[in-house]
# Entry
Amino acid sequence: MLTLDEAKEIAETRGWLSQTPEDFRRAVLSRVALQTFKLGQSIYSIDDPPGGMYGLVSGSVKVSVAPGDDMPMLAHIMTPGSWSGYGPAVTGCRRIAGLSAGRNCHALFLPLHAINEIAARDPLAWRYIAALALMDLKIALGAMDDLMIRDEFRRMIAVLLRAGGFRHGDGGERSPLWLDLSQSELAAMCNLARTTTGAFLHRLEAEGQVEIRYGQIGVLAPEALRARLAAGG
# Structure
């Protein structure tokens, strides 16, 4: 079981919070609580009332969106160091995305009143939250760009790399990385048929670049996948 101190150490060294000034980090970490979620458990749902922020410190979280009147669809995978849920603090709006545990996971929860308290004491806090919003915007724009790739095989590789944080060479040496994605979920993220996605994955598995398990896809060779993407497949 992860302790609160261990969780804070992870948040301090990975992702958005690690890039903020020390005073702000301390203010956040002095107000968080550690929460545990089981596989498939909802953290919050689209259109839920305003609430606080969550910083993932272990496991994975699936992010769902529902543009317009569409049913919720899986859009992205959060890995440790990722934070979400700042929208209500900025605008007072209801939740515009949904989070659910991709596996058993731990997250730090920063309540809405704590965010407002930090911002009241430090007006620059909004600048740091804006930086997080820009990080999310970069991911969203990257997802749009990936989905405009006409070649279906290259599109799937691009989405797979993005889901693992490897899209632009920023995944470090974390491979092999196991993504909590079924083939059907990956197909939906790529806007591809399930059979087409399965055939592509088996092709990559035969070449040693991914491994397929029940409900999981292992990214074994991100550099090779990026090279294939750049070379046109």
